[in-house]
Amino acid sequence: MNQLQVRYQHLGRIAYKEAWDYQESLMQKNLDVKKVNRDHEIAGNGVETMQTENHFILCEHNPVFTLGKSGAIENLLVNNQYLIDQGIEFFKTNRGGDITFHGPEQIVGYPILDLERIKPDIVLYMRNLEEMIIRTLAEYGIASTRSDGETGVWLDVDMPHKARKICAMGVRTSRWITMHGFALNVNTDLKYFNMIIPCGIQHKQVTSMEKELGRKVDVAEVEGKIRQHFQEVFQVQLQSIDSQ
What we know:
Layout: E1 4-13, H1 16-43, E2 55-60, E3 64-67, H2 80-86, E4 89-92, E5 99-102, E6 106-112, H3 122-138, E7 145-147, E8 150-155, E9 164-174, E10 177-185, E11 205-206, H4 209-213, H5 219-234, E12 236-240
Parallel strand pairs: 1-2, 1-12, 3-4, 9-11
Antiparallel strand pairs: 2-6, 3-5, 6-10, 7-8, 8-9, 9-10
Helix pairs in contact: 3-5
């Protein structure tokens, strides 16, 4: 059985809005394909079904806070003028989840997948994203896990005063097409998280691979391990294409 081909791109450092718009365009192309296929099926004209395209994007962003569609603006602890003075952008987004931070030396991943071609189960999809990161961190000797009722990847969840998040997640789906994704703190400057209540969760910390290991980590190396585990967990084959 041939594995599903997923187009892989590394966009480097890219503005958040530019990456968001790009994701939206890829999702819309897939939604258009599904509409055409549905119209042909209804018409019963025997036209061959077109295939949706699957994508996996890795990138980094300039400092930016993003608020999910169900998030509370009160979880942003600084005012707009402070954001301007510090050169931090802010966006209300259409993903799930609350507020989070993206910035340099944080790996942000955006899978644009047609889950009908993998498995149409959004809960399983989220668990698979977490599994991919858990396996990646294990290669660095970082034992991570899930936290019941809280999306993302965590450390020491069984010790409430030590529990800390290392990877945030928030997605959007439409007709089983996914967008948005995850943000893994590698050498991320954690001071930015003091300006928000991360993911709207009180009294829990945020950490990074650098903080846990006591040293800088090669971001490109981590990206390579993420790609490997993405293929294994989702049972797909990545095909590199030229970046935009």
